[in-house]
Every structure is written in C-alpha cells, then in structure tokens.
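#struct-pred
JK: can someone run the complex with calcium ion? inputs below
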Amino acid sequence: MLFGGITFVANVRSTLGGNKMPKNMPNIVLILTDDQGWWDLGCYGNPYIETPNIDKIAEEGVQFMRFYATPVCTPTRACIMTGRHFQRTSAIDTFMGRDTMSDNEITLAQILKEYGYKTALVGKWHLGRYMRYHPNNRGFDEFFGFWQYGFINRYFDSDELFYQNERVYTTGYITDVLTDFALDFVLKSKDSPFFLLLSYNAPHSPYFVPDKYLEHYLRKGLPLKEAQIYGMITCIDENVGRILRVLEETKIDDNTIVIFMSDNGGVSNYWKGGLKGNKGTVYEGGIRVPFIVRWRGNFPEGVKVSAMAHAIDILPTICDLLGVSPYDRRDIDGKSILQILLRGEGETPHEALFFQWTRERPHPDKNWAVIWKNYKLVNGELYDLQSDQGEKHNIAQKNPEIVRKLRQDFETWFEEVTKGQTYERVPIEVGREDENPVEIDVTWGEAFGKRIKIRYERYIRDRIENWGDVGDFVRWKIEAVKEGVYEVMLAYSCPPTDAGSVFRISVGNSHIDCKVEPTPGFEVFQERVLGQLFIHSGKNFLEIRPISIKGRELMRLHKIWLKLLK
Ligand SMILES: [Ca+2]
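RT: done, structure tokens with the ligand placed:
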C-alpha cells in the first residue's frame, strides 16, 4: 500500500525510494469558489464588484489571465485533485452518482499528507457521496463542510454540514462559518506544513446572502441576481481578508502559498469582460476562471500572465515545487507552471488544451473545444483568441485546414481520455461500520419500463415517479461488505386514493412483499420500516418490482435505507 497512512517524513524515503525528500515545504492555502466567473473580480477588470482583499493577492502575486477549468463543478475538482483530465477519473457529472471520483485516483491531498503535510478540506467536496469516497478517505486529515451532495439548501444556520462524518449544526452564514473553521485549522497547524483547501460553496445558487451585502449592490443599481452574486463574492472577499490577516499575524504569510481560483465559468451577466458564454459551456465564459497565486519573496508581485494554463496543472506544479514526482505512479495530464510562477512570465507548457463536457457521459460531438496557438475551435466554429477573445467572428470557412487539424487532434484526445471507461456507476457499499444504515440514493437507480422516471430534484425532493405500470422496475447496484440481516426502510409518498398496491423488494433470493400504506398525499414523504433482508457479501442488485398496482402510481419513492443488524 503506497498510501498506508504514512505520516512521518522519515518513512517516506523508504516508501518512495531514492532522493525524494521535498526541497520546499511551504504551507498551501487553496481557496476555491463555486461558479464565480472570470469577470467577477475587481482585479479582472470588473468596475462594479468590490473585492479589495482578493485584488490584493493579485497585487502581491501572479495573476493568470487565461487559466482554464471545466464547465462545471465536479469535473474541475477532479482535475485539481488528480492532475488528470476528468474523463479518466469517473467524475464526469454533478449528480446522480456520476459525481464520484474513482478511488484508484491519487489525490493531491494524499500526496501532501504522505510528505508530512497536515491536510484539511473545508467546504464543498463533490467527488463522491459515500464513505468510501469521503474526504477523510481521500487524503484529508480533517474535513468540515458538506460532502454528500453538490450543494446545500440552507446557507444560514445550517443543519447540512459535517465534521468528519458527524453532522453538526452551525449558526451564522455559510461563508463565515467555513472561514471560522479554516482559521482554527490554520492556527493549530501553523507549526507544521499544512494544506488547506477552502472550498466555498458561494456564489453558487441559491443566492442567499446577508442583507447588508445585497442592499449595498441594490443601492448601486445592480439587478437582483447580480446584486446577490456580487454580495456573496464581497462576503467571500472579506473572509479572504480574515485569512490573510491571520497568516500575517502568525508570521507564516511568507511561508504560505495562497492560491485563489474558481471551479468553472460564471453565471452573472451584468458585466462579463467581453467573454461569451456561461457556466456549462466551453466558450471562454464557461471555462476561463480567475487564478491568482501569491508566495511572497519567491514569486514576483503584481504580475499578469497571459500564458494559458489549466486546473490539471495545479497538482504537477505543487509536486514540482516540492521536488517530488507524481509521474511514476500515474499518468498526469497537467504540466508544471512553476517556472512561470517563479519568473512571472513564460510560454504555456501546453501544446493544446481540450475541453468537452456533457451531462451523463462524455460525447465527442457536443460542447467541445480545442485551443491551439491563438486558435480555438469550439463546436465547429473557429476563432482567433488573440484578436477575438469574445469569440464573435467565426473564421472557420476561411481556414478549413486548421479546422480539420484541430478537429482531428480533438478526436485523438477524446478517444484517448475516454478509452476503457464504461462510466457505469460504482456499487453502493452496504454494511460498512462507518456508514450504517446506508442511504440508497434513489437517483443512483436504473429504471426499466415505459413511463417510470427517476427525478433528481435538489436532494430534498428526489423521487421515482410515474410508476404506473406493473412491469416497471428499479434496481440499484450494491456491494455488501458484510453478510447478514439488513433492516429495510423507505421514505415514500402515496395518497389514500392510490394506496393498497403491492410490491416486492429483493436482494438475490431474499425478498419482502409489502402493501403500500397511504400517506397524506404525494407531496408528503413518510418513513416506514419494511422488514428484513438477508444479504450475502459481494456485489448484487437491490430491486423493487410491483406485484399489483391499485391506483395511478405504485408510490413515489424518495429514499431507501439498508441497516446491517448486529
Ligand atoms: Ca461550480
């Protein structure tokens, strides 16, 4: 086992062999925001937003003007964590189980922990909702935030946050709460190298923001949505200021690399710096993100860099800085940009950069782009980014040779990064001691039938509906880590007019037949223990099939829990 919880630097040498002791071990604070556009910062030219603290990081550091990510949350986070194109990592979409990063991946946190760093993730994870993929099992000593889903619904006085695997109840606004924890971690870790990934969920929707920030921007005449988003970002900025002050007061700011970035393109539209497109697209507005790095005394100050770089470059750059190589264990797609950081200038290390993202699975003909030299081929349109970064003047017709070459390069790349990938969901582990009972996420199911539909609806109203045909069934892939008797509980709804149907829930040969009891209506989910199933260890299917349907629908199924009985 390469990652057997090695915490002493002295052990690293023998594990990794040779002269691989880190040459530098600065602290790393990576501040990652959610859905903040390239244009949503003062230092990127926005004349309306107020972000003095983040602007100060740019004044004291290196600001990348052409830094790229993927169009959405999960894939970019996989790029940051692995240094690899997300298409290789299984983390291809943002929900319904496709936001699970393969546990074969070696994360940046694992690498840093291996070299003696204390590691913490504060805020959003979004790379796997089950314990096997919990941040604590992916290289982070400490975790405080939310990990089961891509976002939370309560930004004030939340009941949706966890410390490690324990739910906690917090008071106050989410951005302040996350910063409080991050500062505690910095203070207690300041004497050893630490890696803090502070992953704010703001300014992602829902756009909840304390009144004072909202009112400030409404008074300035901004439309409501932008006033909310800008308010959320100014709140982040004040919290970034708190972090910078603590680094200074504890006298570790010269030994701490501060990185500020966002995970994908923006959703605000009031001022876009001339870029086209938003989050979700592969136009510049969907993939270009702010990226600012400060390391006082080591990296130049107040420098703007035009060389293109990508989220996959973060891991190899940090490894380069430490003087360690990630390449002997993994194919890393990213390239080190350390020389650009040290000199404040230089050419991009990439021959070309490729982009593709679609819901459910990668698709070579949808939402794709390649950037090569000054050209960008995007969805078949060709632009000269040097003279036309707004992607306004399609020059594809005049340059058929370039179009052909770039499309061919893209196809070669796409084939390579998706090779051997089935993009099937992983089985849900049941019977784990640290996750018992386990919730079987209904959106991870496969539905078979004509009308039956699995609906993802912000987790709080997820359901399987239109279950009106007796031949329609649903199944989930599970893997029992322990053989035994499991108690089965459902959360479902069924109005009295539809009640009385019968269904069978089974795993292998073990089954329970149940009559659907009424709930007040389709809108109200109620929990009910169904009985017990014997589950053999190993992979299997949990399946629900109707036996008879009395009304319009069997039921609306919201959640299932399997609990191993001791
Ligand atoms: Ca995002």
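RT: quick notes.
The first strand starts at residue 27 and ends at 33.
Residues 1-19 have pLDDT under 50 and may be disordered.
JK: thanks, will look after standup
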